[in-house]
Amino acid sequence: MFRLFIDESYQHDHYYVAGVLLDEEQSEALESRLDELGENLRIRNGWETSPEFHGHALMNGLDDWKDLHGKFGASISIYQKVMHAVRNSGARVYLEGVDVARLNARYKYPDSPHEVALRHTLERVNEYCVLQGEKCKVIADMVPQQEDFNEAIQGFTRVATPGFLGQKLHAIDGDIEFVDSRHSRGVQSADMCVYILRRHREETGASASAQKAARRLVKSLGDAVVHQRKWLP
């Protein structure tokens, strides 16, 4: 069975969800690599605990990464190591986004952009898993509306998802498992992927150095990124 780790990244005008798809062996390999990297960082910096890999916090010197505040080069180096770990594990990375303003303008009662991006991500992953003849367990960071998401996803295993290309999510196994991201290296990897992929696509007003860093980190993911799209309703 495949495991799909998902997380989201957004600003006012756009919302993205990324999924990192791995088989059991790949998942264990990625977790091991990130555990080793986290432990090395803990020892080197004299931290009490291994850090949580979180894109926004790492790049802004927050939370577990406050000791790196202002040390842009060090943050980029760590970020790149995580991207290499994702790529070298054999993961498949999916990115789906939605233009929030257009979504709200098109529909009188639109679904939440999170649900829309999540649904589109699951559709793409479902297509691949069906071809492989495998089921997929979905693991995500905890969110306030998680019960609503599970109810919707369960419905889509019985009837098709909305839209003219709707499909039944036959390969999605059971409810989404919502976990504390601090305890899931897989969810952390999805967070790191979605944050930098969104920044690369959307942060056109960022400084030249920030844009260069985003390009470098996305390049580090390489062909692990098998699908990326922003829906313009």
UniProtKB/TrEMBL annotation:
Superkingdom per UniProt: Bacteria
One Pfam short name: DUF3800
InterPro entries associated with the record: DUF3800 (IPR024524)
Record's protein name: DUF3800 domain-containing protein
Organism: Corynebacterium lehmanniae
